[in-house]
Design goal:
- This protein is an all-alpha fold and 84 residues long.
- It is 50% helix and 0% strand.
- Helix 1 packs across helix 3.
- The longest helix has 19 residues.
- The protein starts with a helix and ends in a 34-residue tail after the last helix.
- The model has no long low-confidence stretch (mean pLDDT 82).
Length: 84
């Protein structure tokens, strides 16, 4: 394991510990002896690697003038549940 891979693994573990702690960022950093800047950097880095980005996908919508709509429900996401 390279030095960079080891550091990323250590921070992945730290991020899991932070999220499970229920502490604020500042409190957790103080207890762990790391800076708030380090935690925010690694949160962004690790989350961006895990979160796939999908290009926008547009679906045509046709509204019929014969249908008097009183409400409209828009569901987004791959399964229509509203989450990605």
């Amino acid at each position: 394991m390279t030095k960079a891979e080891l550091r990323q693994h250590q921070w992945t573990e730290r991020i899991m510990d932070y999220r499970a702690s229920g502490l604020t960022m500042s409190a957790w950093c103080q207890m762990q002896g790391v800076t708030l800047h380090q935690l925010k950097y690694w949160l962004r880095k690790i989350d961006s690697e895990r979160t796939p980005t999908f290009p926008p996908h547009f679906i045509p919508v046709t509204v019929s003038p014969q249908s008097p709509l009183t409400s409209l429900t828009l569901r987004m996401g791959p399964d229509g549940s509203g989450s990605h």
